[in-house]
Amino acid sequence: MRDVARSGTALTDDGASIVWSATGSGEPIVLVAGQAVTMHSWDDLVPQLASRFRVITFDQRGIGASTEGSDPPRTTRRIAQDVMRVMDSAGIARAHVIGHSMGGRVAQWLAIDRPDAIGALVLIATTGGDAAGYARSAEATADLVSRDAARLAVRFFSDSHLRAHPSAVDVFARKEGSPATRHRAYEASSSHDSWANLPDIHSPTLVVHGNDDTITPPENGRALAHVISGAEYLEVPDGRHAPHLDHPHVAGAIVDFISRHPLAG
Predict the structure, then answer these.
(1) What pTM, to 2 d.p., does this model score?
(2) How far apart are CA 97 and CA 216, in angstroms?
(3) For 140-175, how does the pLDDT look when each residue is reduced to its tens digit (9 = 90+)?
(4) What is the tens place of the pLDDT at every residue in 80-114?
(5) For the segment 224-249, what is each residue's pLDDT rounded down to a tens digit?
(6) How many percent of the chain have pLDDT more than 70?
(7) Which residues of 111-121 are buried (b: 16+ CB within 10 A; e: fewer)?
(8) CB atoms < 10 A from the CB of 86, how many?
(9) CATH fold of 7-259
(10) Cα dist. 207→141, 161, 235 in Å?
């Protein structure tokens, strides 16, 4: 049996180096992180997934250990092409995909444009696009852009989780990458609009949303589940923008969902 790489670097046509890491064994799952945050935003979820699956995380262009390249993408659809490069580098022809926030926007394009490469799809705290979706308040936008830990903490995590884990928000609050990189990520996320294409998704889909998410209001998750054929919907009581990290039953629900939709099927 050949060795399976545990880490590597995906190279793009414009010279970007996208660093990825893998843990666990079994069917592969690729995790796509949110806007301008590193692969470490998944750290609390990975062990629960890796008990059953091979889990691949990566730093997007210009973030963490990954470099920018000469023509960095400004759309979620182009970022999805980078995810395919990561899969190629990791030797994966087909994988389940989990996307959080902006990563969920990217994951939508993977399922739309490359259905041959995608198994089960899990969309967490995300939307089909701001223009035709349900907007956050100006105050929530200001908090998100600020990257101020105190302002972001209560928007990402429940009060009980913050009491037990006061530094949980730090990975989301750090200003990763250059100002230009962060601006491009904001452009990509804010310009995303897949609503008209979502009926083309035929991957088994689980939509997860906190009922108290003020960054991406829960009406967006409900709308995604309505538009994507056959999608299952899990709304998390007292869930905010990271319900997969501070509500233990969510990880179990994700593992159960993906297990019910094996790639071999």
Answers:
(1) 0.97
(2) 20
(3) 999 998 999 999 999 999 999 999 999 999 999 999
(4) 999 999 999 999 999 999 999 999 999 999 999 99
(5) 999 999 999 999 999 999 999 999 99
(6) 98
(7) bbbbeebbbbb
(8) 25
(9) Rossmann fold (3.40.50)
(10) 23, 22, 8
* Sheet-wide strand order for 118-124: 7-11, 17-23, 54-58, 28-32, 95-100, 118-124, 205-210, 232-236
Q: What is the DSSP string of the chain?
A: -PPPPSEEEEEPTTS-EEEEEEES-SSEEEEE--TT--GGGGTTTHHHHHTTSEEEEEPPTTSTT----SS---SHHHHHHHHHHHHHHTT-SSEEEEEETHHHHHHHHHHHH-GGGEEEEEEES--SBSSSS-PPPHHHHHHHHHT-HHHHHHHHS-HHHHHH-TTTTHHHHS--S-HHHHHHHHHHHHH-B-TTTGGG--S-EEEEEETT-SSS-HHHHHHHHHHSTT-EEEEETT--S-HHHH-HHHHHHHHHHHHTS-TT-
Q: What is the pLDDT of residue 265?
A: 64
